[in-house]
Amino acid sequence: MESKSILITGCSSGIGFHAAAFLKDRGYRVFATARKPEDVETLKAHGFDALQLDVNDSPSIRRALDHILDATDGTLYALFNNAGYLQAGAVEDLSRDAERAQFETNVFGPMELVRLTLPIMRRQGYGRIIQNSSILGVVAMPFYGAYNASKFALEGFSNTLRQELRGTPIHVSILNPGPITTHLRENAFQVYQRTLKHTVASPYQKTYKKMEQTYFAPQERKIAQHPEAVVKKLLHALESPRPRTRYYIGLPAHILAFLKRILPDSALDWVIYKIR
Questions:
Q1: What is the spatial distance between Cα 161 and Cα 170, in angstroms, rounded to a whole number?
Q2: What rounded mean pLDDT belongs to the chain?
Q3: Membrane-spanning residues where (predicted)?
Q4: Which of 3, 139, 187, 237 gives a 20 to 30 Å CA spacing to 133?
Q5: What letters, b where the CB count within 10 A reaches 16 and e where it falls short, cover 168-188?
Q6: DSSP labels for 217-241?
Q7: Other CB atoms within 10 Å distance of the CB of residue 58
Q8: Taking the mean position of all CA atoms in its chain, how far away is CA 257?
Q9: Please, are residues 130 and 175 in contact by the beta-carbon 8 Å criterion?
Q10: For residue 3, is pLDDT > 70?
Q11: Residue 137's domain is classified under what CATH number?
């Protein structure tokens, strides 16, 4: 039986890398992509069919897809939109450029990949599209406004896509992880240093100092799960004949999603304030 092919974005580390490794071992034809050439070389050294793909760059996306279609005789079983990053900062402190950059990576890149892969899946008569969102695409947290907004946008796009594909053999699933042990925080700190570190006039300077000592600190949270927890749900979304539309991953994600359903906004705001 011919192996199923899957395109995964953001494979340099974390969820993307673990997903690529697990699925490769399971027999999938994994096309593992990364933005930086050096990360692509590292992936190749691990035995992956690795490609450079920058979700912010349309020609890069098209080149990667052309390579994949040449290698698979024009087929692609699944797309896992995993690439993304977190822009921290209060809403009033973020520039339009910072907000735009967040949406380019977390929203517009995945949207373009979906647009380009859907005709392939329609033509072959099957396909899976899995979006790596976040529990912050369901429940907002203060000082992550751009990230919250980008994930809420990805959720809206994915829900609409699923409705439009109703009755077709193409399935759309959303993953909503809570805290996961990845490089998301380290990468977020680098973005924060670039975009907000010197915002001296901000009324939130004390909050930023606290974030530097807690959220951005190089330490593992006890509640954070290994990326394998995400891979387990990804596998179900790929192989179940009836994949779920949404997968909450980890106890914090389940609790917050439940509270979102039962609490009024003011009560949920109080809970968020207490747990931050």
A1: 10
A2: 93
A3: none
A4: 3
A5: eebbbbbbbbbbbbbebbebb
A6: SS---TTPBPTHHHHHHHHHHHH-S
A7: 13
A8: 18
A9: yes
A10: yes
A11: 3.40.50.720
**pTM of structure:** 0.93
Give SS3 for 59.
helix
Sign of CA dihedral 47, 49, 50, 56: negative
User: Could you read off the pLDDT of 135-180 as tens digits, one per residue?
Assistant: 999 999 999 999 999 999 999 999 999 999 999 999 999 999 998 8
Q: Which helix (H) or strand (E) holds 266?
A: helix 265-275
Assess whether pLDDT exceeds 70 at residue 257.
yes
Euclidean distance between the first and the last CA atom of the chain, given in angstroms as a whole number: 49
CB atoms within 10 A of CB 114: 18
Scan for tokens 């951005």, then name that residue.
216
Six-digit token pair at 71? 């290698």
Q: What is the pLDDT of residue 49?
A: 97
* Alpha carbon distance 116, 122 (integer Å): 11
Burial of 53 (0-12, 13-18, 19+ CB in 10 A): buried
CB 220 within 8 A of CB 259: no
Q: How many whole angstroms separate alpha carbon 262 and alpha carbon 16?
A: 33
Please state the rounded mean pLDDT for residues 93-97. 94
Above 50 in pLDDT, residue 190? yes
Supply the range of the domain harboring residue 58. 5-275
**77: how many CB neighbours lie within 10 A of its CB?**
20
Nearest to 230 by CA among 276, 187, 185, 174: 174
Active-site positions read: 147
How many distinct structural domains can be found in the chain?
A: 1
pLDDT band at 199 (very low <50, low <70, confident <90, very high): low
Q: Which amino acid is at 267?
A: A
Contact 132, 75 (CB under 8 A): no
Residue 2 reports pLDDT greater than 70 = no
